[in-house]
Amino acid sequence: MLISRQAKSLVPGLLLSGLVAAGALMLEKIEVRLSGRAWLEALVLAILIGAVVRTCCGASRRAAPGIHFAAKTLLELAVVLMGAAVSFKTLSSVGAPLVLAIVATVVLAIATSFLIGRAMGLPLKMATLVACGNAICGNSAIAAVAPVIEAEDEDVATAIAFTAVLGVAVVIALPILAHALGFSPAAGGALAGLTVYAVPQVLAAAAPLGQVAVQLGTLVKLVRVLMLGPVVTVLSIVMARENQRTDLARPGLSPAHLLPPFILGFLALAGLNSAGLLPSGLTARAHEVSLGLTILAMAALGLGVDLRDLRAAGPRVVFVVTASLAVLTLMAVTMVKIVNIA
Prior knowledge:
There is one protein chain. It contains 15 helices and no strands. By secondary structure, the protein is mainly alpha-helical. Residues 248-258 have low confidence and may be disordered.
């Protein structure tokens, strides 16, 4: 009876989140039909629509439990399912120098972006979200890191919103930059893979440079996405140690403290997929479900944000994201030249 009552309490918030997510998917399809591509993906649209609904209509106490469930529990489930689409074998197919360049770019970009954020007065967790989103894969990285560092919904929504706006700008500007630098299609593709946030956006950015650019850009981007696992693992360990330091009543660290269950699930599915133990049909299905749950979770995050509360943080976050992206682009150009991609 108690479980049934708790389940019923989730329904209003889940329905509202579902409606917002459905609206985001519909708008994405309209974008594709009108312009041939989705300049703003459903992930971003969901959080923007949710925020507008919350700002205009206010918060509903009846919807709160379901919104929180979608924003946290369903988001963690989505991260687990992401693992089914990850293969560690990808690392061996791009060559050691390029893999090292990707790893170095991600690590340096996270450190630099974090320092910029802190220097500009961003809170610790907000600076971490922006740094990881900028360096790895935008929305997905922010969504994966948020539950690990116990970030506030408002911080997650703000980081995603501002990162998304600049992500669109990068898609438009990258082919122009590659041509201006005299990069070959392969080099331009690598540059796209190192800088653009989302895989679909890499395809859009690399397409004007040719098929070779698209193929290499996608491969580089996938390797960059693989950095999400190690980064989240490190953050989990750091958070566990910090909690242990500040809470003397806690018992000694255990694997459960070091790695949250959803991260263990992510790594387990990635390992199974890498070993070829997951059927391709199951992998594709898991990816679709993960994307759907993530969009639903983004809608819930948006519904937890009043846009009027973002005014104070807005300019600082915009500056940090812009500066971080500029540094990331400079690092990527340097790495492409060092690796000497023909």
